[in-house]
Amino acid sequence: MRFGNIMSLVFVLSLFLLLEVPKSCIAYDYFSFPQTWPKGYCNKQIDEHKTFHCPGKIPKKFIIHGLWPQPSQQAPNGSLLVEEDLKPVEKELGLDWPNLIGKNFIFWRSEWQAHGVISEAQFPKLEYFKTALHIYKQNDLLEILTKEKIVPKAKEVYSVTSVLEAVKKHTEHDPQVVCYTDSKKNVSALYEIRICLTSNATSYRNCPNPHGSCGDGNLLFPK
Ligand SMILES: *[C@@H]1O[C@H](CO)[C@@H](O)[C@H](O)[C@H]1NC(C)=O
Ligand SMILES: *[C@@H]1O[C@H](CO)[C@@H](O)[C@H](O)[C@H]1NC(C)=O
Ligand SMILES: *[C@@H]1O[C@H](CO)[C@@H](O)[C@H](O)[C@H]1NC(C)=O
Is residue 29 lining ligand 3, measured as CB closer than 6 Å? Predict the structure, then answer.
């Protein structure tokens, strides 16, 4: 094959690649960025399944759950995520986006397949995970809450509104809190906080339904 032929083949191939990922077509309105409070999540597992599902050491910081294009929708068949794709950020992901109940990569792949592929045209694989890590670094929820004297406690509860206000002080927008009901203490207990961002993931915006499943009363921030 002559050099010219190879070049035109390369040209045609790159055209195909460009066509496959139309940048203009945005399939979602905004992002929800849920962070898990590990102690709450693990206690919830015990409460609901009566067995302990978190085998490792429970991190004492909020960790990434995912980066979800919203409104939620059936994810299309996007490209497959393989471990090799995440090599450049694997260590960071292991610290900030660990799987509390199994192998890390299985968690990352399931989040990619269920959510990441929806925004793949705007945020290709590595970009998507880097974006999540970047947002995480700018929103240290434990620090944000501690500033307002909201810290994990075994018994003491906080008003749901005070937790929402504390996060809002940082983002200037409504977050959303997620709770389960601690059946022994008969109280809402926190296991996730979500903040919301515009579709380019650079500005905050309000989340819908700030009180989430936590109600209007108090919540436990489990220690
Ligand atoms: C996705 O892949 C599955 C299995 O290969 C196929 O049955 C389905 O039709 C595909 N869906 C879309 C939207 O392409
Ligand atoms: C649980 O708390 C709710 C309201 O906080 C109360 O109405 C209900 O009676 C309580 N249930 C039990 C079993 O204590
Ligand atoms: C991101 O989107 C928001 C809202 O749509 C817009 O105000 C902002 O300028 C965008 N930022 C960039 C860097 O494109």
Answer: no
